[in-house]
UniProtKB/TrEMBL annotation, chains A, B:
SUPFAM superfamilies: lambda repressor-like DNA-binding domains, Periplasmic binding protein-like I. This is Unannotated protein. It comes from freshwater metagenome. Pfam families: LacI, Peripla_BP_3. Residues 3-46 form the HTH cro/C1-type domain. Keywords: DNA-binding, Transcription, Transcription regulation. GO terms for molecular function: DNA-binding transcription factor activity; transcription cis-regulatory region binding. Gene3D superfamilies: 3.40.50.2300, lambda repressor-like DNA-binding domains. Residues 2-56 form the HTH lacI-type domain. The keyword DNA-binding applies.
Length: 331, 331
DNA sequence: CTGTTAGCGCTTTCAG
DNA sequence: CTGAAAGCGCTAACAG
């Protein structure tokens, strides 16, 4: 194994110079830098992660804990989130890895804690009263939650600003005369503000609970017909179900958006433009949001002392694709 | 931060004794062991992963690289595999993490290599001519491939013994008089031996290519009716598609197994017993297979020298659930 | 702009 | 059965 010392000898500089070339933490003349870089290449030197972590007193590894990674049909959104986090932290020299957790067992979390392996954690898909939140907090491990469970979440988090997002979507629908709007969700944890928003716009909101799967969406039009006949527009928080719904819509003779308008508020743009018709959305840039989440975690890790918990909320602008239709006069 | 030294002082022993209590690498009197363990608990000591890795000269982290983790509908099988690997390696004191790879970018693989972070790698969902295989081999990084791409794979691997599995399935079907058997696959990389098996049993095999999704399976019965009218039995390598198929089967008036017999050969038992009717399978214990894969990697890591590449093949016995029907006499 | 050096916390050999 | 001590390869403070 080649070490920093070998490289130093080869380049004819001191060991610390090699380190500083690699870290960029002090200025180096172009000449020596070039020589060092060359020596690194010819020697095939690879830095030793463990030594760096030990000497630096910090673990530059960020672990992502994703609940239900394999038990729910994985949405593309998870992919965008992971990619964003990885990019967000690796820009600061950190590595992002996924720490596998089985759903019915806490030993995974334990072993993470006990190993002192990870310098920080990002919790994804947290449920209400998720024990891990308390645990990491108590153990004083830097962590950020991506997607909070309560509006007044008291720890570091990054999430969409659901309230703003809904106002954007609803105000657009209200402008077009919709009075009964269905809201597609798969759990009701974060819907506390909906009433307030609804009354502000003098609209009736109907919470519709379907699983976020293509099949869940495929059943939707009959559910609406049977149970929510007054609904003329949908705001959807579900990506897979929305796509499944749109695919089946014309089969069941439902025209989008003439018969039913739909706005996706939690769907990637690549997904929204791939549907037929393309979906009107409130922009959801999961990648950027996750990247910011990664950066927040790095900040937290680097000022591990003090600094109050902060929340970062992400909204997005309206992207009109299929025109949202006015409610028919016949109504 | 409490260190081993603190614990040693508290317990009134030397630092090395603490280490040996933890590692179990030499015998310790019950008395001191108890005292040390107690001191560990009261001091809240947590071992420092980086220091251990540096001093020990090895990284006890195993990274799993799973292609398309988020772009294919995640099958439960991946979950079982990951769980198996984690358990397999953690029994030997290793940590298993998932290293996220974006499908269109090699920088992830690079950064893994350059960081010297991982002591060993498990490659999953490898494609034919996967570049990573060559790369890890050249860089001399211990790795095992879970699911090979060729029958004569020249590196360490763990996989199902497809040939044996198929013989089990086919011989059962042949016993019941089936002469045209459809084989459900989503890629044709490993089908080279099928011809041989088919001729051995004087059976005609029809490769049927459907995506491994519930929707893919839902379309299957019409595909068979239209394109493969002679087929009276199916051997399926696809889990999600098979489940989708069975769900739709009776809707389309197809009786299982009377009209079409089906044997799942790549489906978890929990999935197979949840279908209606329960699926006849050739047992596929993904968890145990993956566990063995993790153990193989640990072996490779610990004798990093020499030792020729080895392959471990897993077969399974027939589990008859729905009786496989005899071909109708009318044929 | 560059070199020297003291550790980081642990593993493991050597010596009892 | 237990202790002492030499590093593992790197970071970062200190000294030019």
């Amino acid at each position: 194994m080649t070490t920093r010392a070998d490289v130093a000898k080869l380049a004819g500089v001191s060991e610390s110079t090699v380190s500083y070339v690699l870290s960029g933490k002090r200025s180096i003349s172009e000449k020596t830098k070039k020589r060092v870089l060359e020596a690194i290449k010819t020697s095939g030197y690879k830095s030793n992660y463990a030594a760096a972590a030990l000497a630096g007193g910090n673990s530059k590894v960020v672990t992502m804990m994703i609940s239900n990674l394999f038990t729910t049909p994985s949405s593309r959104i998870n992919g965008a989130l992971v990619e964003g986090i990885v990019d967000g932290v690796s820009a600061h020299g950190y590595h992002g890895v996924i720490w596998p957790v089985s759903d019915n067992d806490d030993t995974d979390v334990d072993s993470l804690l006990k190993s002192n392996f990870s310098g920080g954690v990002i919790l994804m898909n947290v449920k209400e009263n998720d024990q891990r939140v308390q645990l990491f907090n108590r153990e004083n491990i830097p962590f950020v939650v991506l997607g909070r469970t309560q509006v007044d979440f008291a720890y570091n988090y990054v999430d969409r600003d659901f309230r703003e997002v809904e106002i954007t979507a609803i105000s657009h629908l209200v402008d077009f005369g919709h009075e009964h709007i269905g809201v597609l969700v798969s759990n009701f944890g974060l819907t506390s503000h909906l009433k307030e928003v609804a009354s502000k716009f003098k609209t009736k909101l109907h919470l519709i609970d379907v699983p976020n799967t293509p099949e869940g969406g495929a059943n939707l039009s009959s559910i609406i017909r049977d149970k929510y006949p007054k609904v003329t527009a949908i705001i959807s928080f579900l990506d897979a179900a929305t796509i499944g719904f749109l695919e089946k819509a014309h089969e069941s003779g439902l025209r989008i958006p003439e018969d039913l308008s739909i706005i996706g508020v939690n769907i990637l743009e690549t997904q929204a433009t791939a549907t037929l018709p393309p979906l009107t959305t409130v922009l959801f840039d999961a990648y950027e949001m996750a990247k910011s989440c990664g950066e927040l975690l790095v900040e937290v890790m680097e000022n591990s002392k003090a600094s109050k918990p902060q929340g970062r909320l992400w909204t997005g602008e309206l992207k009109i694709r299929a025109t949202v239709a006015k409610v028919r006069d016949s109504k």
